[in-house]
Amino acid sequence: MTLRLLLLATLPIYFWSGAAWAQAIPGAEIVVEGEGLPPPPGDAAYSTLTIDHDRLGTLPSGRLEEAFADVAGLESYRRSDSQSAHPTSQGVTLRGLGGNASSRVLLLLDGVPQSDPFGGWVAFPAYLPDTLARLRVTRGGGSGLQGPGALAGTIEMTSAGPDLLPALTARADYGSRDSLDTALYGASEAGNGFVAYGASYRRGDGFIPVAPEDRGAADIPAYYEQGNASLRAGIDVDDATQLQASVRGFVDRRGGGTAYTGIRSEGADASIRAVGSGDWQWQALAYLQTRNLASGFASVSDDRSSASPALDQYQVPSTGIGGRVEIAPPLGGGWNLRIGGDVRNVTGRTEERYIFSGTTPTRRRRAGGTSRTLGGFADLGYQAGPLTLDAGGRIDFWRIGTGTLFEQAFSGGAPITDARYAPRHGSEVTGRLGAAYRVAPLMTVRAAAYRGWRLPTLNELYRPYRVGSDATAANALLDPEHLSGAEIGVDVAAGPFARLSATVFHNRLSDAIANVTLGQGAGTFPGVGYVSAGGAYRQRRNLDAVTTTGAEVALHLNLGEWRLDAGYAYTDPRVDATGEAAPLDGLRPAQTARHHANATIGWGAADGLNASATLRYTGAQFEDDLNSTRLDPAVTLSGAVQFPVSNVVAVRLRGENITDTRVEAGIDGDGITELATPRTLWAGISVTLG
């Protein structure tokens, strides 16, 4: 239904961007841009990394999260990908600042926030990487002009236009476990503007996520079926102004590996942006996001011979509405100023059935609320000769609206719980300072300090969840997180041929939100109900802090037909905790590894023949906050080869986890190990026109 509505919604934009636009400015020169304002020159003072369109179009998995994995230290809460992971576990973070599944990275697509409005996770099946121009990653907090929420960094995704996309590409791949991966995308000029489109469909029988030694009759393959569609258009209103519009949507169906654990996620976005590129540069953006999640959780017998329903979150709808305006006046003299403001309003709730008698639920729960941020920002940069300076700041006003928690038996009677949480509000002043100096023709040193913040998501405030026999309760009284940090680094660059970047940093995340163990089953606990023997009861809590010190190195070589991209990240996060969370003091946050490394070597010939191979290493990490269960390190190998058959047809072979490495994604309180994607091989064909 979501995709059908999306396609209907795109029709006016398509016709608007076609013949009607061709008559908008007769005889005018067409300027196809499709992007917002360029990054300010002051960004040279910070640690940045760009993944280009060539890499995005040749990922062995074809999934966006693999591109994220090219950034050493950028990780999701779980090691599993969007074939088998629960969508709510796929928040992204950097620099070891994990500990729960909400994103601590500000993720943007063409300026629009992409994290789920309710939960802060990333819907990876919503994106077709082939249609992106680049990913630009800025490590470190305090996003300044980009918006609030950048504790660990900012990822800016930019859509591609006719300068990078052909008129049409169609591809279809068949893979292991009866998997199908298809896509259709392209772009073209249209009158005084452009149109770009993309759609993909993926499905597969999936694999059994429980490790072979732990499986029982209740364990079944975790199937998946996913699709997305997008349409973008832009028109040059005059020589210095472009109007851009975008609609996109996705559907995502996954199995959880047992009966009663089906997952349904869907959403649609729409945005409109105006960009001025004259002497006074400016942009204005407005957007709408809608999401809905349904997810079942099961209780599995001790011998794993049977499963029964434990929790049915049959509807988790949410909406995000926002916008931003920004102006860059012409100062001259090496100065650059960006000023503006942004607003984002989020509403959402979870509706659940729980405490089952057999397969019949006996109680229902509804919880949710609203939140809003309203901010103003300014970023002032100076660049002259070898020196670059940057100072950016924000003031944000936030409000968490009245929250509710209602629980009642289906048989009727008085509510079990009918709670109202009073609205809360506050303000945050954050910012960043940076400097870079070119000490030699090829070498630049830089230093930066920053402070950022993040408002708790509605998911953290109101939605409980289960993983195996473990249950985690929400906490409607959570406070915002705050990060202070500093870094120094060096960049060595030889034009487009080589770049080496190294950074050392120290961050302190105060009021860090984590899932804190408060009890063990068997027993009944507030906010989650019954927890079986062997299961853990946790609640989201604000820790005193998480401190992390580390280093990052990135290398890029472009040597004609050969290309090498490599990265390494070391982080040593530690928890500062008192009170009920005191047992966590000095421990490492859950699901954070000390070491991440990757290397991709690629080769491409002039006739279109190309190949690449990627090696990744993820160090050992702990499953839980008490550091009692360890996930082993893993090394994986992926690769792809493309053979041109003609000027328009190519054959492609690709493989994920080619060595079939065991990658542990989780271990629950009963000691049951969940695995990430095993070896997956693909063969396919593509047709490209224009």
Automatic annotation (TrEMBL):
Record bears the keyword Transport: yes
Signal keyword on record: yes
Topology of the protein relative to the lipid bilayer: Multi-pass membrane protein
Domain TonB-dependent receptor plug per the UniProt entry, residue ranges: 43-154
Top-rank lineage group of the source organism: Bacteria
Stretch forming the signal peptide: 1-22
Broad class of where this protein is predominantly found: membrane
InterPro entries in the record: Beta-barrel_TonB (IPR000531), Plug_dom (IPR012910), TonB-dep_rcpt-like (IPR039426)
Subcellular location: Cell outer membrane
Residues of the TonB-dependent receptor-like beta-barrel domain: 227-658
Keywords assigned: Cell outer membrane, Membrane, Receptor, Signal, TonB box, Transmembrane, Transmembrane beta strand, Transport
Record Pfam families: Plug, TonB_dep_Rec_b-barrel
Family: Belongs to the TonB-dependent receptor family.
The protein's name in its UniProt record: TonB-dependent receptor
